[in-house]
């Protein structure tokens, strides 16, 4: 809701797909790895996710030849400087 509300207010018409992370079926990693799924033009990624945290997911995306060019924006409430440094070291867009 925190993301969807402002997108609606500025009339973004792009399809938004909300997925949980992790390595189980139906999660973001599975969706992005499925060649039949539409690839996003942008990934909004939460640092604090279950099973696979945001840094791990970001690393997996950037290690994938097909996905690495998709810009990733990391969302976090963390004040930890190392979280931000890790994110930028793995190529987060913002």
TrEMBL record:
InterPro entries: CheY-like_superfamily (IPR011006), Sig_transdc_resp-reg_receiver (IPR001789), TCS_response_regulator (IPR052893). Gene3D superfamilies: 3.40.50.2300. GO terms for biological process: phosphorelay signal transduction system. PROSITE patterns: RESPONSE_REGULATORY. Keywords: Phosphoprotein. It comes from the Bacteria. The modification 4-aspartylphosphate is found at residue 46. Residues 1-94 form the Response regulatory domain. This is Response regulator receiver domain protein (CheY-like). It comes from Nitrosospira multiformis (strain ATCC 25196 / NCIMB 11849 / C 71).
């Amino acid at each position: 809701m925190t993301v969807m509300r402002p997108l609606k207010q500025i009339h973004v018409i792009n399809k938004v797909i909300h997925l949980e992370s992790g390595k189980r079926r139906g999660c973001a990693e599975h969706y992005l790895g499925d060649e039949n799924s539409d690839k996003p033009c942008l990934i909004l990624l939460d640092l604090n996710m279950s099973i696979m945290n945001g840094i791990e997911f970001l690393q997996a995306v950037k290690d994938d030849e097909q996905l690495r060019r998709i810009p990733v924006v990391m969302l976090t409430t963390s004040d930890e400087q190392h979280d931000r440094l890790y994110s930028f070291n793995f190529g987060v867009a913002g």
